[in-house]
Amino acid sequence: MTGGPRDAAGRPPGSGGTAWLPSPPPVPLVTVAGVEDRRIRTGIGELDRVLGGGLVPGSMILVGGEPGVGKSTLLLQTAGALARQGLSILYASGEESLAQVSERGRSLGANAPSLYLAAETSLDAILEGIAALKPAAVVLDSIQTTCDPALGSAAGSLSQVRQVAGRLLEVAKRQEVSIWLIGHVTKEGSLAGPKALEHIVDTVVYFEGDRHQAYRILRASKNRFGPTEEVGVFEMRAGGLVPVENPSALFLAERPVETPGSVVVATVEGTRPILVELQALVTPTGAAMPRRVANGLDFQRVAMLLAVLEKRLHVGLGASDVFLNVAGGLAIREPAADLGVVAAVLSSVRNVPVEACWAFFGEVGLGGEVRRVAQAEKRLQELARLGFTRAITASMGATPTPPGIAIAAVELSHVGELADLMAAAGESRAKMRFD
Ligand code: TYD
Ligand code: MG
After folding, report:
1. 409 φ, ψ to 5°?
2. I need a surface site. Which of 1, 60, 170, 317 has the fewest CB within 10 A?
3. CA of 64 to the centre of ligand 2 (A)
4. Could you give the CA distance from residue 233 to residue 218 in angstroms, rounded to a whole number?
5. Ligand 1 pocket: which residues have CB below 6 Å?
């Protein structure tokens, strides 16, 4: 496949230069339609949300995640949903045979007449397919199995991944085709391929966590056409990925009440408030190096908060293992979870459950001070909607509690007050039992 036509520089057509497509002339700004007018809603609500309201024509989207997490499933469903709107879609799979893809497509209800399949690994063949079909969107499953035969290197190598994405990007921009690139990312660190593309593509969405999680969480880590950190929640069922429109209720569904170490945290992912259960388990250990495990939380942040607990609240953790877990598989990166982490650890250390109607949000500083976080109003609204009556948080300053909301904000300035609050609640509860 190294033969074939060459351009003046001796390169095969399109192998790096832009000579193979005519350059369009500059156009007046006012004549160019904006992005918002042209978005295509896929009809899969949680996906549209992550994209910032729908698919932008001519955009390139990288979809990453561990093998088996649901990338092909989501994209086949998306391709089907777009094709049902009458758009022609090309799904190019280098991973599975035509028979396998079409069988899966049918079982996912993606059998629309304008959905075309190609079992291809050659970029040239895929580009020919795009030229012939002029689809509105193309799915490349996956970037690692597609190769430009003009390059000597193996499929999946860094140079191939860059080359394939680069050439497709040109096509995306000039022909207004939306191109989805599926990229495998493994825990072991074969991040190199897809990671190298993050700066070229318009949007990067990742399936968070692994395929053993109960729910599949899709997060936009970059988006030129919408807010980043926007999260979509899906459940993998026999008929494919099903959007979860009320993730807070789902994440709290199995919450054990009256269990020490379990607290509810009001987080905001992108533009949406989501309530999650945070669990801490602090147990004595004989090990010289106590264990620190933080699932779904930033490890460095947790280490800092444990140090604050030791130094400011004199909670000795040196002879204890500390395990923290965000139930449901969501990864929380915002510092608004700090106060919840401190509360969960305290609750576990003291073996005192936190009141079931309490929830937490607030950043904690090195001095143990509790700081305000953005979008307090949204968090309060979501808490009230799910029946919480006390929001333990930082001083709200001028932010009023939204009108008509039955939730009281308990404003703390230091984590020391949290310890007192929890101790008082524990005492009054114990008193109620003995009365
Ligand atoms: P898949 O989309 O093939 O993952 P990826 O492309 O990210 O590697 O998802 C595969 C998993 O999803 C597989 O374990 C089976 C499961 N699955 C379902 O549970 N229901 C379905 O309808 C489909 C298509 C897959
Ligand atoms: Mg796949």
Report:
1. -90, 125
2. 1
3. 10
4. 6
5. 65, 67-73, 104, 108, 211, 236, 238-240
Q: Write the CA distances from 203 to 156, 300, 413, integer angstroms.
A: 20, 27, 39
What pLDDT does 401 receive?
A: 66
The pLDDT assigned to 10 comes to: 46
CB 290 within 8 A of CB 321: yes
How far does the centroid of ligand 2 lie from the alpha carbon of residue 271, in Å? 29
- Note the pLDDT of residue 211: 76
How far from each other are the two terminal CA atoms of the chain, in whole angstroms? 86
Strand order in the sheet with 203-208: 115-119, 89-93, 137-141, 178-184, 60-65, 203-208, 215-223, 231-237, 240-243
* Ligand in nearest proximity to the CA of 74: 1
Distance 262 CA to ligand 2 centre (A): 36
Q: Give the count of beta carbons closer than 10 Å to the beta carbon of residue 403.
A: 5
* Distances, alpha carbon 70 to alpha carbons 32, 112, 237, 374, in Å: 36, 21, 11, 32
Residue-wise pLDDT for 153-169, tens only, equals 888 888 899 999 999 99
Q: What pTM value is reported for the model? A: 0.85
The answer to whether the CB of 357 falls within 8 A of the CB of 387 is yes
**Nearest atom of ligand 1 to the alpha carbon of 69:** 7
Residue 393 has φ and ψ, to the nearest 5°, of -155, -175
Of 323, 305, 282, nearest to 360 by C-alpha is 305
Residue 47, both tokens? 């996906």
By alpha-carbon position, which residue is closest to atom 21 of ligand 1? 240
Euclidean distance between CA atoms 363 and 420, whole angstroms:
18
Residue of minimum CA distance from atom 9 in ligand 1: 70
Contact 49, 190 (CB under 8 A): no
What atom of ligand 1 comes closest to residue 207's alpha carbon? 7
Q: Is the peptide bond before 142 cis (omega within 30 degrees of 0)?
A: yes
What is the pLDDT at residue 347? 95
Ligand nearest the Cα atom of residue 63: 1
User: Which segments in the chain show pLDDT lower than 70?
Assistant: 1-21, 187-193, 398-404, 430-435
Contact predicate 287/321, CB 8 Å: yes
> In Å, how far are 135, 380, 403 from 406, measured between CA atoms?
51, 9, 9
What is the distance in A from the centroid of ligand 2 to the CA of 249? 30
**Strand 262-269 with 240-243, pairing:** unpaired
Taking the CA of residue 71 as reference, the ligand 1 atom at the shortest distance is 7
Residues 56 and 38 sit within 8 Å (Cβ to Cβ): yes
CB neighbours of 251 closer than 8 A, spacing ≥ 6?
274, 275, 276, 277, 327, 328, 330
Report which protein residue has its CA nearest ligand 1's atom 13. Answer: 68
